[in-house]
Write a structure and sequence with these properties.
mainly alpha, 8 helices, about 70% helix, ABC_transp_permease
């Protein structure tokens, strides 16, 4: 994770040097009027479709079975003929594609190199709250974080929301480093 954060900072700095750090705007693809706009409906449908496709991939295809085997028991998977390196590469590619999709759906109508930093803080906090090894816990952690941050925004002000997310992250890591729904793994030396 630390290497990823460092790489993020380097890439943001390089992007700022190449294209400037000035925000550039672009129009929304859909109208944002109403309580539940077409853009919000589109986002929800794309997220549900992507989640269903990933679930089907991992639960109902031979490729998904090989990817799970390579992730959880690489030695055993290699013994039965699974190319572990290839499965890990496919997994990282899939993660990059889903991350890019999430970035497209969450981006505001202006863009600059550091535009997604707050989204990154919220996503990391939700994942830590739920447990980094528990996808369902991460979703629950995201809902809990969303409720708490809405309360912070309503009662204390919107300018404290990111600070509150970071404070929650520090508290959860201090009290329960594996997250609320994560499983403690004993490590052998």
């Amino acid at each position: 994770m630390i290497v990823t954060l460092g790489l993020l900072l380097v890439l943001q700095a390089v992007a700022g040097m190449i294209w400037t750090a000035e925000p550039r705007s672009f129009p929304y693809a859909f109208d944002f009027r109403g309580a539940f706009s077409p853009a919000a409906l589109f986002t929800v449908l794309v997220v549900v479709a992507a989640a269903a496709a990933i679930l089907l991939l991992f639960k109902a295809t031979p490729l998904g079975l090989r990817m799970r085997a390579a992730a959880f028991r690489p030695e055993v998977a290699a013994l039965v003929g699974v190319r572990v390196g290839r499965m890990l590469t496919i997994g990282w590619t899939l993660a990059a594609a889903v991350g890019a999709l999430a970035g497209l759906l969450a981006a505001p109508p202006f863009i600059h190199p550091t535009v997604m930093d707050t989204v990154f803080v919220y996503a990391l906090t939700a994942a830590v709250i739920g447990g980094l090894d528990n996808p369902v816990g991460t979703v629950i952690g995201g809902f809990l974080l969303g409720v708490v941050l809405s309360l912070v925004s309503g009662y204390l002000g919107a300018e404290l929301v990111t600070l509150a997310a970071l404070a929650i992250l520090v508290v959860v890591l201090s009290v329960r480093p594996d997250g609320l729904f994560g499983q403690r793994v004993a490590r052998r030396v």
